[in-house]
Write a structure and sequence with these properties.
- This protein has 503 residues and is mainly beta.
- It is built from 4 helices and 35 strands.
- The strands form 7 sheets. It has a 7-stranded mixed sheet with strand order 14-13-12-16-21-18-19, with no helix packed on it. Strands 24, 25, 27, 29, 30, 32 and 35 form a 7-stranded mixed sheet that branches. Strands 3, 4, 5, 7 and 9 form a 5-stranded mixed sheet that branches.
- Strand 3 and strand 4 form a beta hairpin.
- The longest helix is centred in the middle third of the chain and has 6 residues.
- The N terminus and C terminus are likely disordered.
């Protein structure tokens, strides 16, 4: 396990711009290791993109489905003709999919066969504290187990699960410990969206390999992870019929941002984000995904001739020196013959829940050392401490949080456990439409940027965390704990209660 205190320090050199946003990230030197694989030597569009395996429950009883999962190492053919050792759920890479229904409980027993501890977090899930996957609620290595209960008392959403063991999460997720969790409900089911084989989840990430085809992990090593994977394969192809497809896109990268677009520049529809469907579809030519974020899109391939090929490209995340033919490409679509298509995307997708009235306001500042002297990262000047409660929240309270990225060069993003939130403002400009207008659990902050969020903390009492979901940053300490309680006091220095709300 690589701790941040063991990572070799760097000077003040910076790696360069992050896409068109002009973002910079600090470089981190790698320890001595085998020579890197040249990403330009990896054949592209030679492997078919697999679909993640849908798990079948080991039992159903009443309104509960039960699953058993083993956290274990396995070999996967990520690069054509080579086997790579990865960390997996049930030996699957890409990780498996659990399909769940709102109101129907899912119980998962996780058994950890790795040599390192784990803690499994359902990202975006509204769950009790003991099933949240707290950074210090660990499953012991070598056969330890824990049972997680997901009540699914929330609307449809494209969720995912991953390791969250503090100072281990970055490496475990990088080495493959992720899976998808597709939660549906009557609202979604009653729409006539593309379904069945035409509803395709795609987990995106990047990787770095040595010459033997093994993953190379170094904390903060964004610029050297130049091989892009879609559903666990390097630059795969995917056969599509000439009709509409729904693609559920998950950014499971530790650090990389994506700006995804079709190679012909044509428009498609974005219908959802982190917390499920938007209120109405958006006609877009690209979607932006920070680590941990999701986008739900519909692409109509009926406009293309049989035999056409399209590349899903990445216009963001390019650094000076990046091979654009590698980092700028994700996967290839190969258009086949027509297929019956009775699906449609309606003008109205859902009614978003009412915002409610916020009675508490808080401020949070994300920062990390950009001089290279340390590998420490902070929220409100503090690095994560497991026994410290940073924020006390009254059960049922609706709050607005102003979150600022204080760094000059380094982007961050912000994820809150337990709740889905709404983005109210970005740099003082109201967010009333667009991809951030739906339910969110992760939000991007460019250097110097500020966002204002609103969430209602109800359903469960307990201690949870908020953190940067650039997982290398959270492993460096950019994480804090909040406690929701019916007896909580909000008399903290960062809390300002509205004059109209008095105890």
């Amino acid at each position: 396990m690589i701790h941040r205190r063991d990572v070799l320090k760097t000077g003040a050199a910076l790696t360069g711009a992050l896409g068109g946003a002009g973002l910079l990230v600090p470089a981190v030197a790698a320890p001595a290791q085998a020579a890197d694989l040249d990403p330009t030597t990896v054949p592209q569009f030679q492997q078919a993109m697999p679909l993640p395996e849908v798990l079948e429950p080991v039992g159903d009883r009443g309104m509960t489905s039960y699953y058993d999962m083993s956290i274990e190492e396995a070999d996967a053919e990520i690069l054509p003709g080579r086997l790579t050792r990865v960390r997996t759920f049930n030996g699957r890479f890409p990780g498996p999919v659990i399909k769940a229904v709102s109101g129907r409980r899912v119980v998962v027993r996780q058994t950890n066969q790795l040599s390192v501890p784990t803690s499994i977090h359902l990202h975006g899930g509204h769950v009790p504290q003991n099933s949240d996957g707290s950074p210090m609620d660990l499953i012991a290595p070598g056969g330890g187990s824990k049972t997680y209960t997901y009540p699914n008392h929330q609307p449809h959403a494209n969720l995912w699960f991953h390791d969250h063991a503090h100072e281990q999460e970055s490496e475990n997720v990088y080495r493959g410990l992720t899976g998808l969790y597709l939660l549906t409900d009557d609202v979604e089911q009653n729409l006539n969206l593309p379904s069945g084989r035409y509803d395709v989840p795609i987990a995106l990430r990047d990787a770095r390999f040595d010459e033997s085809g093994q993953l190379v992990y170094t904390m903060g090593d964004f610029k050297n992870r130049q091989v892009l994977l879609a559903n666990g394969r390097a630059w795969p192809y995917f056969n599509v019929a000439a009709r509409k497809y729904r693609f559920r896109l998950f950014n499971t990268s530790n650090m990389r941002f994506y700006a995804l677009q079709l190679s012909d520049g044509s428009a498609f529809q974005q219908i959802g984000s982190d917390g499920g469907l938007l209120a109405e579809p958006l006609d877009v030519t690209s979607v932006f995904l920070a680590p941990g974020e999701r986008a739900d899109i519909v692409v109509d391939f009926s406009r293309y001739t049989v035999g056409s090929t399209l590349i899903l490209g990445n216009a963001g995340g390019l650094l000076p020196g990046d091979p654009a033919d590698q980092v700028g490409r994700v996967l290839q679509f190969r258009v086949g013959g027509p297929a019956e298509d009775t699906s449609s995307v309606p003008a109205t997708l859902r009614t978003l829940p009412a915002l409610g009235t916020a009675t508490v306001r808080r401020s949070f500042v994300l920062s990390m050392d950009e001089t290279g002297k340390t590998m420490d990262a902070f929220i409100n000047g503090k690095s994560y401490a497991m026994n410290r409660i940073d924020t006390e929240i009254e059960y049922g309270a609706t709050e607005t949080w102003t979150v600022r990225n204080a760094n000059v060069y380094t982007p961050h993003n912000f994820h809150i456990h337990l709740v889905q939130f709404r983005v109210l403002e970005r740099d003082g400009k109201p967010v009333t439409s667009g991809p951030e207008s739906g339910l969110k659990d992760t939000v991007t902050l460019k250097p110097g940027e500020t966002v204002r969020l609103q969430a209602t903390f109800t359903g469960y009492e307990g201690t949870y965390v908020y953190h940067c979901h650039m997982l290398d940053h959270s492993a460096m300490g950019m994480m804090a704990s909040f406690r929701v309680s019916k007896t909580a006091t909000t008399a903290q220095s960062e809390t300002r209660r509205h004059p109209s709300h008095r105890r």
